[in-house]
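LOG
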Amino acid sequence: MTVARIVQEQRKTTQSGKAQAGSWTLEYERQQAQRPDPLTGWNGSGDTNTQIRLRFSTKEEAMAYATRKGFTVHVVPAAPTSLKLQAYADNFR
């Protein structure tokens, strides 16, 4: 059975706008354990589903897609953020 995770995207710290904040992303969870490659020593697995990320505008659309495909779903909402508003002069107190 395929297990998926639906995550609410937050604004990236390097962004000033809120273009993709609030969108929802469906990611597949890893089905195989990672193992070191004997030649390079890098970790990897044959599970390529973890490379797929589907973006939806609402949580309901993501849930409808997951139920239509028969996935087990874990929903991860975005952590609440609070802004600390201060003036530039407060840096020199």
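LOG (cont.) second protein
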Amino acid sequence: MSFPARAPMPARLLLLEDDPAIARTVAYALEREGLAVAHSVLVQDAREQLARAPFDLLVLDVGLPDGSGLDLLRELRGTPATAALPVLVLSAHGEEIDRVLGLELGADDYLAKPFSPRELSARVKALLRRAGTQAAAPPATRPAPLFHDDEAGQRISLRGQPLALTRREYRLLACLLRGAGRIHSRDALLNAAWGDDSESTDRTVDTHIKTLRAKLREADAGREYISTHRGMGYCLDL
């Protein structure tokens, strides 16, 4: 009597990130690649999770409510059980001196925010390969995409449901979709949706984002997809 081969266990990743929108984006991108993602908001919580169970990789932010991710990194490198744990630093500090400091403290890779979820997934998989760990193969059949952009017809569907968008709303959402997970400035969104229309302002973008949010909320049971980053712009969170 034969039994089907047991599917490989997914690689386990711990994400230390206090921004809920970024955490959702990272978890979604990595789980699509077959990774099992656990999430911590605080350094102390991450420290406890690492002590309770082994992980194959750690993705950590630097600035956290109860301390610095770099302090945790320094601790891990000084502990035999975690000295070889692959670590990717995900930080809003992207200057050369910040990257050099992170790498000198023992990070295996450093990615500055805003980032591309696709690039993050590629870097994580490269680190796992280097460590001799493979992510489990993604499911052979994937669910339908959350959003579908019919560029020819300038229509966007959410969970298979067409959205009733104006021309400007379509352009705004299409721009946000192309850079999902990234923060788009008001100027960038204004240029994408209005081009050289000199009468349009940042306030015009804010007004259209408000109506766009309402339509997305109505189509998906109140879920918020567009987050505001004060002084920076807007981001589509998948």
